[in-house]
Model the fold of this input.
Amino acid sequence: MKNNLSFAFGLVSLFSLQTAFFTYFENSVLRREIRLLERSRDLANDQINELFYTVDTLRSEKDSTATRQFVAGVIEAIQNKEYLTSVWHDGYDRGTSVISYTSQKEEKGK
Done:
């Protein structure tokens, strides 16, 4: 009977020891997986931040290029008196034609 009891106790002890080692091993594997997932998330966040920075930089460069081109066009138009005069007269002529057109429509509508 003593032999059977000690054998059963030894078997239970081995089973408990095996379960403890298995649990410890599984926990260490899970910890490593969590660390790897956190690292990959950090890398992905860094890449996304770099991508946003690049997009913002390109957008601001594009906006500044458009602004420079606009300012250069305005300065060139102001410095060229003949062009400025022709543009002014074209705008004036368009404005008067719109006014006369709307006047005609209002007179026909009455």
Remarks:
- The helical segments are 2-79, 81-109.
- The mean pLDDT is 82.
- The first helix runs from residue 2 to 79.
